[in-house]
Amino acid sequence: MKPLELLLMAAVLHFGMGCGVMALAEETPPTIIVSPPDKILVHETTLSVVLKVNTTQVDQIQLWTSMGRTTFDLNSSKAYYCQSISLRLGENRIDVRSYKDNALVSEQVRHLYVTSPIYQEFKYPPTEYQRHFFHTDTNEAKCQSCHDMSVNEVKGVAFIDVTKSNCYHCHHNITNAKYAHAPAVNWLCTSCHNGEVGSDNKKFQGRSKYLVPEPVNTLCFRCHKKNFKLWQSYRYRHEPLDSGRCNKCHNSHASPYKMFVRKPVNSICMGCHKDKQIRAKRHGSKCEGASEGKRCIACHTPHASSREFFLKEKKSKEHNGTRTRLPQKETLHE
User: Region 295-306: what's the mean pLDDT?
Assistant: First the structure.
């Protein structure tokens, strides 16, 4: 073989090997998003992000969302990092950018959809988004070098210092709203997250250690026994109550609104009963809830009543303002 041919062959081999190394580097980025995967469905506006980082190739990580930027403090002795972030309803994009000496070396992107049972515009997510569950033995093993992944709560006993809960570090943002539900704010998580399933979520059985049975009413009425007894005695019961979906209107963790409702009362009602508001405004109505600044629950009870249209029970002067029951009718009013 002539010297020129040998030189050309060596150049081709060198170039090919170089491309192979480049391709390998592209397949194994210095930062990997362990959780969440892409195109997942989320039911809360908070989420924990878990990263695996090669700190020999990266010295800074920035996590960008529609809510702002978070910077990670890297440590050469650690491989995994986690951060709790806030999301907005609807579509979200998580952008993880890795830098070395202020130069961008890697960028990973995830798309998420936060759904809501009460906001019609976010109730039906695009079909490409699917549920994902983190708490499996395989996933938790990646966290054990920094976190105690066991459940350290005592049934029915609130933490004196809630930061001592093993759940707190990753999930503390979930109770940051003004009004927090007692089991959540006291970090008695497994009171509800017992790993069981109900008729509405049987297909997810075994997917996570901390599933909640749906519908959730069997859990709710373990504490709210008096409410259950009272509401079951009434003839007319509101659909969310009758179907056992208390969490359709209430957030079981925390909310900016009293009684942990997912949004202002009238907004909840008009999510299903918009036609009533339009009709009242168009034709006139004596209903106070049809006016701005008034609330539907001034006259209607959102749970149950012996009166049609879930009107509140009449008060009796003879009984010092206590509620009285009206005779029940033979037909139901939907």
Answer: 90
